[in-house]
Amino acid sequence: MSTVTVLMPHESIEIEGQCVDDLVLVDRSVLPQVLDWELKPQGLCRDDECVPVRDRELLLHGDSVDLCAAAAAVGVDSMLAEDTDLVALSVPSETRIGALKGRRAPDFVLPDLNGQDHSLEQFAGRKRLLVAFASW
Amino acid sequence: MVIGVALDETADDVRPLVEGISFPVLLDRDHLLAELYAVSNVPTVVWIDENGSIARPNSAEVGTDMFFDYTGVRPDEHLNQVRAWVQSGTLPADAATEIADLNDDEIDARLAFRIAVHLRRIGEASAADWFASAVELAPMDFTVRRAAMPLQGMDPFGDQFFEFWDEWKRAGHPYHGIPRS
User: Do the Cβ atoms of A129 and B46 come within 8 Å?
Assistant: First the structure.
């Protein structure tokens, strides 16, 4: 089987699968790694929480799952670059809305200029000014 | 404390800007903050309290007078507000502002931008098409349009930028956050 590069918000990974006609067909076993959710008889589930899948036909294609349809079911947008077997997945909408409406600062992990990872959470307990800037 | 996050491609782009700075400076090559916090321009400042709640959301604040002629923004008022918050927990009235969510095009623009930077890193010529798609989807978003300029060999302080700046002003200077001007 060929491979697909999945550009997740925090990292990019290669998984087995193929891009066909706007679908990204992958084995269902990769869903927990890529989306945090797994496909069960009752729907897509994460811990004790499940979202029903209204139209399983859209999701399941033979033994494979369309990663983009599974992502959409859990509030993750996707964009496919078929020529290069790439798919980009967005941050879950609930995370962003939790920041904008719920005022919960989403945690993240990013490297410093020497390549060492830091998280927002590691500085918890202090007032923090998060300053986004750029050279451009 | 301050946590700086640079929406830049390499650490070398950032180093000249942070000489002598002691707070953590992180590199956000894939513009994670543009998605998580709906950041649409820099500088954008978010106040986060001890418990991880956002005390004051995205705001266009500056640290110096360097761009005063363009932005009309001075650092003093914000710095005084930060001092009041740190010392006594006082928040300015605008802290309650709710920032609008990204629309579908702005989300797609961020995904197209991430595809573009990935393709550029692996030397794929189609990166250019994806930068173009991203800009078309969110033409007023600096984290997309202006950030794409140096990655395509354009000067982010050159003619194309000033053309964009004029368009953006005519459009009512849209920004996901609290403007200060």
Answer: yes
